[in-house]
Amino acid sequence: MQNIFQDWSVNRGNLRSQMVLFLLRIAQRFHRLPPAWRWIGFPLFAFYELWVIWILGIEISYKAIIGPSLRLFHGVATVIHESVIIGENCTLRHSTTLGTKRGINDAPILGNNVDIGCHSVIIGAVVIGDGAVIGAGSVVLHDVPAGAVVAGNPARILK
User: Fold this and answer.
1) Which fold is adopted by the domain 9-157?
2) Could you give the dihedral angle defined by the CA atoms of residues 143, 8, 49 and 44, in that order, rounded to the nearest 10 degrees?
C-alpha cells in the first residue's frame, strides 16, 4: 500500500497541491475498505467533496487509480473521471480533463512519466504511452505512442 505522502516531494513548494493530493490519498484508502467499513470515512469524503471539489474546483475522483508521485500544477478546473488510470510520475496542469465519451468504462489510461499541458482534454478509451507529452490546449481522442509529443485540436503527433 502506498504512503499517503507519496506525492509530497514532487509538489514541494506547492502547499495547495500537496494538501489536495494528501486528502485524495486518504480518501482513496477509505474507499478501498470493505463496504461495511467505508462509513468510517464518510466525514472525510464529505470534507473532500466540499473543500477540494466545490471550493477549490479540483475534481479528482478518489475512485480513480493514480500512481505515486503525481505532480499537480495549480490544479484549478482539473477533472479526472473515476475510471481513469494514471501511471507513476505524471504531471497535470490546470484545466486538464481526463474523462469518458459515453460510458463509465471508456476512460483514458496514462502510462508512466506522462506530461500534460494546461487546458488539455483527453477523453475516451485512449492509451497515452510512457513518456508522452501532451501540448497545452490539445484535444486527444486517439492513442498516443510512448515518447511522442502531440498537440492541437485534434491532437497530432509532432515528434
Assistant:
1) UDP N-Acetylglucosamine Acyltransferase; domain 1 (2.160.10)
2) 130
The set of cell numbers assigned to 138 is 490539445
Predicted TM-score (pTM) of the model is: 0.93
Contact, 33 vs 50, CB < 8 A?
A: no
Q: In 3-state terms, what secondary structure has residue 149?
A: strand
Q: Which three cell numbers stand for residue 98?
A: 481526463
Written as one string, the DSSP assignment of 41-68 is GHHHHHHHIIIIIIIS--EE-TTSEE-S
> Helix %, strand %, coil % for the chain, to 5?
25, 20, 55
Q: Residue 45: which region, alpha, beta or left (left: phi > 0; alpha: psi -120 to 50)?
A: alpha
One digit per residue, pLDDT tens: the chain, 159 residues? 468 888 999 999 999 999 999 999 999 988 888 888 888 888 888 999 999 999 999 999 999 999 999 999 988 999 999 999 999 999 999 999 999 988 778 999 999 999 999 999 999 999 999 999 999 999 999 999 999 999 999 999 998
